[in-house]
Amino acid sequence: MNAEILAIGSELLLGETIDTNSAYLAQQLAAIGINLFRKSVVGDNEERIAAAISEALGRADLLICTGGLGPTVDDVTREAVARALQRPLIFHQHLLDQIEARFRAFGRPMPQSNRRQAHVPEGARIVENPRGTAPAFIVEDARGTVVVLPGVPSEMRYLWENAILPYLRDERGETGVILVRTLHAVGLGESVIGELLADLMTQTNPTLGISAKRAQYELRIGARANSRADAEAMIAGVEATIRERLGANLLGAERLDQTVARLLRERGKTIALHEGVAAAPLYHALSAQKDALAALRGVIIHPADIPTDDEAAQSLARTGAVAVRHQWRADVGLALQPSSVIAADGFATMCVALAHDGGVNEWRRRFDMRSEDVWDFAGTMAFDALRQYLAAL
């Protein structure tokens, strides 16, 4: 079974509300082995919702809609589903009785607008909602199955777990599993990683996807199988190939900051920092990890007082790394110093130095200073250098 999710509500398009329902449903579908091919959002417009439903049923076996089941005039999901499936809306007295009873429990009279919620498309399976006034429903159509859930997250999750999930497992036989494992890599560009793993990325099962985050890369391996053990075995095979091809650039399940923190702890090393920029990306990244913060002996944040070209920036990084190491008697001193010479294209050089018992290691790389993530990129370069040094001990 292949699925799509359609989140309904103009508030989602306006950015006023974050669509957490789709993320939850995506995880739930993966847990029972249903492939999710698309997630869409549409506003509170009957014609557009109906069109989105019809289009989705042309691609998917299962469509899950959330939202638009309230009592107000802009809640038109019921009407849109009926329109897309060419079925009339049918009134159900027992649903109205349940809605009225809920209002009585609150000690309030039911507004007449709530009567709309007692209508569902003809032939739909009603899913009663003890957590709210909007019943859900399932329509099994020749083109596919449409599951319609309220948009209130707590109600949606309750109905999914107690009604829709049992329906898919017990009646539709969806008992497989989709597992995802995320690995982290650094030190290679996204395009280089893509070339090294191109054949793995064209597979349909298991799958491999790459996403870039501040010069660090997430490799997501997904496998669909009839059992968790089978899916894990498929993922393990892909992971072994990735490890072989990326070598030391593959961190594994840890992020770079987690790896550095672990290595500092395991090697029993202390560290001091020199930051030549007020943003202090090294300290902010290091202090986010408990083990790394425990290893930190001191930090100097001192932007250059005078303009510095590339060579001057490298010299400042070198002397800074040595100075903080000796000042705080740390095992290693790590320094980051940007050049103040910014080229016409917006790029400037970042210099890194790592002082240790054996001397000083140095690196430099150019970054786009117009990027709001430039200091995170520079921090990644510095911490990857530290990681490689610690790993080799």
Automatic annotation (TrEMBL):
Any coiled-coil regions, as ranges: none
MoaB/Mog domain ranges (all copies): 4-171
Pfam families documented for this protein: CinA_KH (PF18146), MoCF_biosynth (PF00994)
Gene3D superfamilies on file: 3.30.70.2860, MoaB/Mog-like domain
CDD domains: cinA
Top-rank lineage group of the source organism: Bacteria
Family: Belongs to the CinA family.
Annotated HAMAP family: CinA_B
Protein known as: CinA-like protein
Organism of derivation: Roseiflexus castenholzii (strain DSM 13941 / HLO8)
